[in-house]
Design a protein that fits this description.
The protein is of the alpha+beta class. The chain folds into two domains: 60 residues, no CATH class; 108 residues, 3-Layer(aba) Sandwich (Aminopeptidase), CATH 3.40.630. It is 45% helix and 25% strand. A six-stranded mixed sheet has the order 1-2-3-4-6-5. It is elongated. One of its GO terms (molecular function) is N-acetyltransferase activity. Pfam families: Acetyltransf_1. Belongs to the camello family.
């Protein structure tokens, strides 16, 4: 898994765990564990580690998995002439007919950001989604891109490329991931 992906997971986990309801639940769990465990430090840290692990497993299960090789999804890796890996892209079909294609992984190495790599990967994803929709007999092509709420740069890039925010999902009433889509 690339460093950019791990950074995004960490930012989403930090964002979710610093919301007031999450802090209240962590404090209550820590207080309860102090009566069971003999160590104050363990009672303080155990709920945090368990919450972060659950959050990361949940994110990986719902968002950001790589599809099997071949077919629509890739994965494709962007590489510079010097052999440096710049980014990665993976696609999957939507969950139902007419949903179009869905980006399951779009990550650009931090050393190659703001150099057009993300836009090129997105343009490639759009061309693959169009070709896939045409091959499936769909009258129109559509691409959906989920974005972590903490990834403001990606959201700005998508809006600049004509994508519209259409939905979101989260935990405890807080948005963790926004979904952008574009009719192609």
């Amino acid at each position: 898994m690339g460093a950019g992906v791990k950074d995004t997971e960490n930012r989403v986990a930090l964002h979710a765990l610093t919301r007031p309801p999450a802090l209240l639940l962590l404090a209550a769990a820590s207080s309860g564990l102090r009566f069971v465990l003999a160590s104050f430090a363990l009672a303080l840290l155990l709920p945090v580690f368990l919450a972060v692990a659950a959050m990361k497993l949940g994110l990986r299960a719902r968002w950001g998995s790589l599809p099997p090789p071949g077919g629509l999804g890739g994965p494709w890796v962007a590489v510079r002439g010097s052999g440096d890996v710049c980014g990665v892209l993976a696609l999957a079909p939507g969950s139902s007919a007419g949903d179009g294609a869905r980006v399951t992984r779009l990550s650009v190495s931090r050393w190659h950001r703001r150099r057009g790599v993300g836009r090129r990967l997105l343009a490639f994803a759009e061309s693959r989604a169009r070709a896939w929709a045409g091959g499936m007999g769909e009258p129109r092509a559509r691409l959906v891109v989920p974005v972590a709420v903490a990834a403001w740069g990606v959201a700005g890039m998508l809006e600049g490329c004509g994508y519209q925010a259409e939905g979101s999902w989260g935990c405890m009433g807080y948005t963790l991931v926004r979904e952008f889509s574009k009719e192609l």
